[in-house]
Amino acid sequence: MRDYLSKALFGSREGLIFVIASAIYVAIGVSAELSPVMASEFGFIGLMSLFMPGFLLIFFLKIGGHRRNYLSTWFNTSMMLIFALVPFLVVAKSAIIG
User: Fold this and answer.
1) What confidence tens digit (pLDDT) does each residue in 8-33 have?
2) Where are the alpha helices (H) located in 11-85, listed in sequence order?
3) What burial letters (b/e) apply to 19-58, b meaning 16+ CB within 10 Å?
4) In the prediction, which pLDDT does 64 show?
5) What is the mean pLDDT of the segment spanning 33-57?
6) Angle at 67 between CA 56 and CA 55, to 5 degrees
7) pLDDT band at residue 47 under the 50/70/90 scheme
């Protein structure tokens, strides 16, 4: 089971994106929860950060990253990367528009 999980999470680009993005979001979420000053700095990203690892897991399972015969494609990698950056893209869009 341990070999299966390590191959699924660290054997593909999508798994690495999932692990790294989840770790970053959990760190942002914990710091936003523990410090009100950090929560006001993070704003929307701090609000979404505790939910994003779950959304990323659902998306990772949806593209089939957990399967033994999973073949990583650039399309799946780019979709996983875009999905991992959604809160940052929303904040950047709202900052540009006004």
Assistant:
1) 788 888 989 999 999 999 998 888 88
2) 13-34, 36-42, 44-48, 52-62, 74-84
3) eebbeebeebbebbeeeeeebeebeebbebbeebbebbee
4) 86
5) 85
6) 10
7) confident
Phi, psi (rounded to 5 degrees) for 85: -100, 5
In this prediction the pTM is: 0.83
Instruction: Determine the Cα angle at 46 with ends 87 and 59, to 5°.
Output: 45
CA distance 9 to 12: 7
Q: Which residue has the tokens 């998306």?
A: 59
Q: Rounded to the nearest 10 degrees, how much is the dihedral formed by the CA atoms of 74, 75, 78, 80? A: -110
DSSP 65: T
